[in-house]
Design a protein that fits this description.
It is a single chain. Helix content is 46%, strand content 12%. The chain is of the alpha+beta class. Strands 1-2-3-4 form a four-stranded mixed β-sheet. The chain is built from three helices and four strands; from the N terminus they run ααβββαβ. It has one domain.
């Protein structure tokens, strides 16, 4: 998505922020397309690399201390990234079966956290478009 910038005011900082956000938005769409194309060819490297990309991005954007949980133990069941200090888990997925992935991830998360300190789970879908019913 691109935005037409018309600077009516003299606030160059605001204009730059909107422009930067528009470019960032376009880059995320391009990245989602790249991951989808790689997955359709049976290549999962981009999907795995996306875990590290979003780990760094989310840490920078929100001040979190996420680490890739798949490094010490390959293929965690319900999450890819963890911030132990905040009890925060993030599942990064490019799986096109949105509903199945969502329900499986949530069910596994609930089963593995019975009787434990409550944690927060965020599911990040790498996709240009996600069905609205999934986002509710």
């Amino acid at each position: 998505m691109f935005y037409l910038l018309i600077n009516v005011q003299t606030d160059d900082t605001k204009c730059l922020q909107i422009f930067t956000l528009a470019i960032f938005n376009a880059l995320l769409f391009l990245y989602a397309d790249l991951v989808e194309q790689s997955n359709s060819l049976g290549l999962s490297n981009d999907a795995v690399d996306s875990e590290n990309l979003f780990c760094a991005f989310l840490n920078q954007a929100f001040g979190w201390k996420l680490i890739n949980a798949n490094e010490p133990r390959q293929n965690q069941e319900s999450f890819d990234l963890i911030d132990k200090r905040r009890n925060l888990l993030v599942q990064v997925t490019s799986n096109k079966n949105y509903s199945d992935k969502l329900h499986k991830t949530v069910a596994t998360f609930k089963n593995s956290n019975k009787g434990k300190k409550k944690k927060q789970l965020i599911i990040l879908f790498i996709s240009r478009k996600c069905p609205p019913k999934i986002l509710k």
